[in-house]
Structure formats: structure tokens, C-alpha cells
Amino acid sequence: MHVTKRDGTREPYDADRINKAIERAAAGLPDQIAITTQVASELAITLFDGITTEQLDEAAIGVAVQNVKDDPQFDMVAARLLRKVIYKRVLGGYDTELELALLHQARFPGYIRDAIEEGLLDVRLQELFDLDALAAALDHTRDDLLKYIGTVTMRNRYMITDRHRKSLEVPQYFWMRVAMGLALNEADPTGTALKFYEKISTLDYLPAGSTLVNAGTSYPQLSNCFVMQMEDDIEHIAKSVRDVMWLTKGTGGIGLSVTKLRSEGSPIRSNNTTSTGPIPFMHTIDSTLRAVSRGGKKFGALAFYMENWHLDFHQFLDLRQNSGDPYRRTRTANTAVWISDEFMKRVAADQDWYLFDPAETPDLVELVGSEFSARYAEYVALAEAGKMRTFRKMRAREQYKQILVTLQTTSHPWLTWKDTINNRALNTNTGTIHLSNLCTEICLPQDRDNISVCNLASVNLPQHLVDGKIDWDRMEQSVRLAVRQLDNLVDITLSSVPESEFANQENRAVGLGVMGFTDITERLGLAYESEEAYDLIDQIVEFVSYHAIDASADLARERGSYNNFAGSGWSQGKVPFDTIAEVEADRGVPVTVNRVTRLDWDTLRDKVKGGIRNATLMAVAPTASIGLVAGTTPGFDPQFSQIFSRNTSSGKFLEVNTNLVKDLQALGIWDEVKDQLLAAQGDLSKVDGVPQHLVDVYKTSFQLDPHAFLEVAARAQKWIDQAISRNIYLEDRDVDKMMELYAFAWEKGVKTTYYLHMKPRHTAEQSTVRVNKTENINRTGSASGRAAGGAASGGARKGFGGARKGFGGAKAAAAPAADAPVAEAQAEEAPSTTAAAAPASASRGFGGFGGAKKPAPATTEIPAVTDGEAVATTPEEKAPAAAPASVLSSIAAQAFATAPQEQPEVPPVTLPEPAPEPAAQQLSTSAAAPSSAALLDVVETVASGDTEMIGGVACPVDPMERLQCESCQ
């Protein structure tokens, strides 16, 4: 057998050479020999005569990847094999680690000079820096901090290539280029770049996505978030379209408020016609996003915001629907609703809600809190007196429910709270905050002359956890350097829109966040929904906030305060914690959040009175992409599953929770339970023999009480001057519970929420777990017998997907055996199985929404089908929860109550089941060496219409962009 080299020549296949390469990739791992043997033997069966060196490399990586499900150590092997490919293409061949280190140093200056000559890098990188000193600091061993998915993400998204798409960077060149690009304005650029490099190359903190893409390049557009408002005149509408185009070209994510645009049918006096309303203009901008792709890699990213008193708000709710007039829909842009305290209080009191034309009520956009409420009441009185040209009246609860039903069916609009944001901000002395950004974590004022800008970075919490304790000194260093780096960015970044350039310089707004919270709770053995975890996030974010503010105050003494400092909350000696009381006083409703403090805030209050460098300091972004690079969980999000296949724009990746594997290995049970875990879709509670404390620690997103997500956010929000990109995960589709949950967020003082992820109703059958279906069928009788048994034990399961009655009652059938097919196991289980979630949700917030469960929103469902049985997928009917003792408990228990609907009967469907071909045979019969994606497919589930996940389930409505908010990563 021969291998075809890159120059087209052929040479005999050298198995010994390949085996040594694999052995080096497994160096230092506990089972080096076993891993090497397994990868080498599985690789051998994929080979064919004439295989190219590229195919050989790809096949070796793929073989390592497909074994990650059995042992996460294979991820390290795959990452090292991939990096070897990168090293060879950029640096050339090498045989030893010493040679690799010398190549890194020797070729770094040439890489900088060549990239500058090609017009790819900033000429100042050669003029201002001591390239030899920087080269000497390069440490390629830090590459081992990168997982396989992190290496691929870095290569595909962030590392630069030449005009022919040839790779120019290895990971450490990339980190150093970013560090240099953020030190250009320093008095000692080389020394500062070395400090930045030390932190980001060890993954202590990471700049956000746009910064990583463009830092040090010839076009350093480094800002991440742009927040703008569209004015109600045709000239500004046209300018807004132009601005969106330029900001999108520069890879920025955009928030755009359309509340000021007059409603459909509103008179236009200049030409004696009527307005078409905001929807057609939003569709135009949506098309613009698709026309101007972000960095040439994917569509633009933008979120429209509208206040829910706008007369066309019902049309706004339909923007993301799949049906209807395509010219009145947005297929790329997202939507978010800007909600006032007045609306929330009218919902609580079951009062009417009035919708107005902004042309008649132009001042409502600028008013917040009690001032908004007073003026709104005046407009209501005018409407009732017949003195308004047009208005619409409806029950506040009716609209609230419409919002949440639309959120459940389309994942939009996201809920954000106008008055909480404005009253808890310290930077509103320059005007009203009219919206947030694409990912709902930015809170900055804007107007016709200011497109607000924010610049992001995130502290990687697990890197600061040493021997089971947080290294607070290391974290303080990370925070202070990150703030300095972000402040530098304001002066270095370029913008093609003058209004954003102006706002950036005037306010110098930055948003330092954190990521990896779930990662550290698992390492510390804490359950996400425990009081200990809440106290931990409280303490961490307080610490980060304190030192970020202190660092900015120090920078003000070195470089001066931001231009709009006078009159700000900072100038009055306020810190974010102080705004909680102000919100309570204005809304007249308590903010139910823990008020413990740990640090000397009085001293810091006195210090910030003297000046602060940045209008804002903290914002927690989703960190979906940089979280992959850092190898940790994104933001505050829980684990999606313990084992699953992640589908991103960079490819498919098999992920296994290494924290869980380590804990199970310490108990000596990983090898015996790993197949059960895979069969259970990553649900540890369904695996036999696992201690309960581990089951509690390793609950996944849909198993947790959703109130826990908001408690974590509320604790963190105490200390954050901007907001948090807070995803919500719900297993239960009960709209009444959703109404209570989002009201709970408002009561807690949470400023914004982001995506709502609903658990899909169907799952896919596993193709990788050895199961004895005949044995399982015999154990429970037959397919039809299981259906009958389910009807007897859990309340009637009628026909194809019929109603399963009795909330909180017994499961429909006994739990299936551990080796049962997953789709069968899930079919026999009630959709809500987390015992801890029920009492918590029954005692909080707007709980009185109760009543009989309403019909689910109209969506098309494809039933899961296994072994000739069509599986029931309709959630259980829910009994009304008891009304809580809350300030909002006056809500009627039977609001929106309707009779439950039963599903029609459909005859069972039987599908033939082909015998699975062993993985080895599937690979060996390939006509060519498989790609890593093809190899990964061998270990994936049989894909269903809802998801491609192995363990757990994906978001059923939106594509992969849901967790890929590139502008904030």
C-alpha cells in the first residue's frame, strides 16, 4: 500500500512512522500504550492504496474523535494530531519537541513581516515591537490547554490565512498577535503585550470574537456590540440601513430599536399618505443582513427591539413565524420585547393594556419607571375620552400570554425589562436606554447622534480554581489586565460609522464577563440549584466587579475619566449594588434578592467619585464560541448533556463531560456505566449505581428547576452594571408556568433574558449502544402490551399521541431496562421528572396564573417511532399550582383557562429495522479515507427531525446559530 504525498509522489505506507506519531500524541496520558494501540488498529482498517497524506491525517484524527465517548483522553490525542497538521503546514516538519519550540521562535518574526507585506497585519506590529523578545516568550506547550473543538474553532474562526486560504498561524502565534494588537497604544508595547499574552495564552481570560478575529490586523474592528435606534423619518431609516451594512461588514452584532416608527396606517403629512408601519423596513434590514455576510463567514446578526405598547406589536410578534407573508417576516434577524414596570403591574392586577401609535405618543419612548406610568395613564384617559386618533385595548395578561406562546413556538421575542435596565444603570445621564444588544447583555443609552458600542472579554473561572480553591490573587490580576486591555481596545478599534466612533470615545464602555460557572460547580461538587452555588456566583461576581471598578478608577488617574463621567451615577459615588433600592422605590415592588456583601464597598464608592475611566465595566455575554476555545461551559449556562454531539459552523464534535468522567473513574464505575449513560441520552439519573450526590451535581439543563437560572442571574446582577445574557431551559411547555417564571425574573431584578430552549418532544434512537430489543420487548410483553400497560399505570394514553392525565402522577409505565433503546425509554416516561423542580415553581412569582392547561401552540410534530409503536409525545396535563404569597399573588387562578384537547388517534407505523453494521466494517468498505465528520457520524445517533444530539436534545426551532452568537463570543 502506498501514500500519495502533497507533491503527487507516492511512497510505501510506513506503519511504524504513523504509530510513533500517535504515540507522541498520547504522551503523558495515563493509558498511553492502550490508546496508541486502539487508534493505530482502528486507523489501519480505514486505509487504502493511494491515500493522500491529508486523508491519512484526517482519518487518524477522526479515529481518535470517535473514541471520545469511551474515554475523554482521546480528545487530547485528536487535538494534538490536529495541531501537528497545523504545525507542519505553518512551520514545516519536525521530529522532537525541542525542534518544535525552536521553530516557533525562529519563524515568528518572519510570519509578522510576511503577513504585513501581504497587507494582512498592521504595520505597527513590526515598527513598535521587539519581535525577537516576543518570539522568545512563545510557549507551545500551552497548546495542550486546548481541546479538540477549541483547536478547530480557533483555526476556522480566528486564525488568519493568506489570500489563498493557506494557514499562517499556529495557536501561539495567534495569541501573541492578539496581544500585540491590543497593546499598540501602550508606552511599552512589548512589555504590555507579554503580559497580555501570558494571560490569554493560558486561557485565564479571553477577548471576545470580533477582537480575536481582527486584533493586530490591517483593519482592527475590535468592538463587539452596536446598539442603535431608528428615528421616525425616511432619511434616518435609510441611514440606518446603511449603518447596518457597514457594521455587519465589520463583524459587529447589532441591536436596533424600531419603537419610534409610526404604526401602519398612521398619517404622513408631507405627502398626504399613510405609513406602511415598521414591519416592511424590518424586512428590508433582514435582507441586508443576508446580503452582507459577517466577515464573509455567515449572515449578519441583529436583534430588533420594540416596546409592547406599540400599535403594531401584534405584527412584531409574528416576525419569526414560519407561515404568513414572507415579506412581513424576518428569517435572519432576531426580536426582543422591551417591557415596562407598568405592564408587569397591570398583568399582576389583571388590568387592561393599551397600544398606541408612536406618532401620537412620542414621549413614551424616552420615559422610564414611574414617569412612564404617569404619562401612560394620561394617554389611557385621553383614549377613553375619545381624544386619540387610534388605539387598541386588550387585557395585559392576554398580551403577556401571546408573547410567551410566541416565544415558545419561535424562540422569539426575548424578554427584556426597560425600567429595570434604566433604573439600575449608572450611565443614563446622557439619555434613555432604549434597547439592549443582539445577546441582551449590553445596556447603553443611544440617540440620533450616538450608536452605542461595547467591547467584551470574559474571565475563565476554571483556570482560577487550584486544588479545589479559587486563586483570588490570580483572578484579581486577570481582571485588572482585562480591564486595561479593553480600555486600550477603545482607542485602537476602527469603525466605519461616525456615530459609533463618537459614542465609543465619549463613553469608553466595556463589558467584562465570566464563563465556566457550571464547570467550577461540578469540580467543587456543588449542585447548580443549591444555595452553595448561589453564594459562590454571588461571591465571584462581587469580586470581579469590585476589582474591575477599582482598576477603571486607577486608569482614570493615569489616563483621565471618560468624557460623560460628570452627572453619572459613578460621579455620585454609586456602585451597581446601590441601584437595587432605587428600583424598589420607583416600582413600588420589592426586589427579592439576597443583599449580602463581602468587600469594602464604602472605600470604593469614595474612590469612584474622583473619576472612572469607563462608563460601564461588566456584562456577561453568552461566550458560546470563546467558551469552546477555553474548553469550558458558556457563561452561566448549565451542562446541556453529559455526552452529546455539538453541531457548529466549524463542524460536528463529540463532547463528553470530563468532570463527570473523572468522578465516575474515581469511584471505579465509569467503564461499567458509560454505555448506560449514552443509552440514557446523557441523563445520569437513569444510570444504575451512581451515588445520589453525583446525580444532583450533574443535572443537565432540562432537569434543573428553571428558577435556578434566574436565581443565579439575580445574584450576579447585584454587581453588574450592564446585564447578563441569560438563557432559559424548560422541559415543561405549560404556558402558565412560563408566565410565572418570567414574572419571577422581573421580581428578582433580572434585567434581560435571552433564548428560551424548549425540550423537544421526540428523541432519536441510539445506533451506538448495544441493546437487546427482543429481551426488552419480552420483559414488558409486546409493543402493544407496553402501550396498554402505560395506559393502565399513568392515566390514559389515548391512541397515537393522546392525553396523559394527572400532573405529578405515576409514570406511564415502569422504567425500562438500562439496555433498552433510548426512544423507547423516553416514550415511557412523563416529560417532567425532576422532583426538586415542582415545589420550587409552585411557590414563586406570578404562580396564580394556574388553571387548566391551555392547548399547546399550533406546531407540526413528527412522532418518534420505534419497534412498530408510535410513541405518545404529548406532555401531561398540568393541575393548577397553588397561588404564592407574593406581592403579585392577586392574579386569578383561572386566567386563560381552557379545556384540554386530546390528540386524534393515528394508526401505529411499523418501520423495518436493518441490522447495524459494525463501525469497523462501515469504515473499511469506504471507497476513500473518511473525513473526521464522516467518522464522527459512526458514533452519532440516528438523526431525528428535532436534533442530532447523542445525549440530550437540541433546541427544536432555531438552527445552530442559537448558541453561536459570534458578536459576543
TrEMBL record:
Top-level taxon of origin: Bacteria
One Pfam family this sequence matches: Ribonuc_red_lgC
Renumbered residue ranges of the record's region Disordered: 764-796, 822-841, 896-931
InterPro entries: ATP-cone_dom, NrdE_NrdA_C, RNR_lg_C, RNR_lsu_N, RNR_R1-su_N, Rrm1
Sequence ranges of Low complexity compositional bias: 918-931
Pro residues bias (residue ranges): 905-917
Family annotation (CDD domains): RNR_I
Catalytic activity annotation: a 2'-deoxyribonucleoside 5'-diphosphate + [thioredoxin]-disulfide + H2O = a ribonucleoside 5'-diphosphate + [thioredoxin]-dithiol
Transmembrane segments: none
GO cellular component: ribonucleoside-diphosphate reductase complex
Ranges annotated as biased composition (Polar residues): 765-780
One GO MF term: ribonucleoside-diphosphate reductase activity, thioredoxin disulfide as acceptor
Chain ranges of the ATP-cone domain: 1-92
Role according to the record: Provides the precursors necessary for DNA synthesis. Catalyzes the biosynthesis of deoxyribonucleotides from the corresponding ribonucleotides.
Family of the protein in this entry: Belongs to the ribonucleoside diphosphate reductase large chain family.
Protein name per UniProt: Ribonucleoside-diphosphate reductase
Organism: Demequina lignilytica
